[in-house]
Amino acid sequence: MSTHEEYSKLSTLQKALITFLLLIGLCLNIASMQKKATTYDEHLHFSYGTRILNGNPERVTRVDDSKMPFSALNALPLFLSEKLKKQNPSNFLIPFLSNYKTAQYVTVLFFPLLGFFIFLWSRRLYGNAAGIFSLFCYTFAPNLIAHARLVTTDFYITALTTISLYFFWKFNQNPSVKNSFLSALTLGLAQLTKYTAIYLYFIFGVIFFLKHAGQIGKIRHHYKKIIIHLFLFIFINLFVINAGFLFKNTLIPLKDYSFRSRLFQSIQTNAGLLKTVPLPFPHAFIDGLDWVKNNEETGESFGNIYLFGKIKNKATPERNFKGYYIFAFLFKVPLAIQILILLSLIHFFRN
Known about the structure:
It is a single chain. By secondary structure, the protein is mostly helical. The chain has helices at residues 3-8, 12-33, 42-53, 71-87, 94-97, 100-108, 110-126, 128-139, 142-147, 154-173, 177-190, 199-212, 216-221, 223-244, 262-269, 283-298, 324-332, 335-350; strands at 305-307, 310-312. It folds into 4 domains: 1-143, no CATH class; 153-247, no CATH class; 249-300, no CATH class; 302-351, no CATH class. It has a two-stranded antiparallel sheet. Strand 1 and strand 2 (310-312) form a beta hairpin. InterPro entries: LipidA_mod_glycosyltrf_83, RgtA/B/C-like. Its main location: membrane.
């Protein structure tokens, strides 16, 4: 069943309630951002997005390390306003498009999009009431509202991770070409939001294995279809990633890179004949991965990290706090949501 067909089967009251919650979420985001200053890194994402629109996806400095093509969406309004100024300086859209708040509104638009997919997925799993309840919890989630109004890629990866997993779930339920295409497309788009999305390849593999672990005979019988879907995933992902970086400097061999991180230098040194094989990825994509890994190894881009009265930074021998994100989760996620998660886990293991 398509997304449109699912939505059309909802009652008028259900559609009204869903629309109301999505609009409430949109209004909360817009209202909460009006008197907020920009964060320290928003202009860095905006700057990289502008460079993408001007045809230059390459990393220029260390601060470009993790910046991604999706930031071009935020830079698009100002980019268009500059074009309009040249054609008609008095165009009434120019003040709106050139306002920095408009760049933030672009991210806000993804808030109802993600909310709609959360409703759809919950509804398909547990029914209408569960779908609406999930959407209600999402609409008033403070952490999501906090990031959905920023010119960064954190909310983009949140949205694309969820949506790509949703379509991969649909693909596992019904391995049609359409579901395969949508799953591969959204997975590829996720790679243009943040490098963390690379973990999705591993997650997709684990999900597929767990789903079909007891169906080896069936898999062998349909191995040709599996190979076709696999090649479709690979082709679409490579195409989307290359398109996101404007197909610039693709097919550069490993030997021609100047890596900074120990990990990538080691791979380059030990690659043997493979280092002469052209890589089917844009230079900026690989270069950014290297920058990110180098920053992890050296702590070069790290600020002060605080936890339980202690501060660590790049000068600290052990600059990472063990279990930091677990403690951050306990402090930042609303207690009501934590209780619901705990109850759901208890219910899951009991049944």
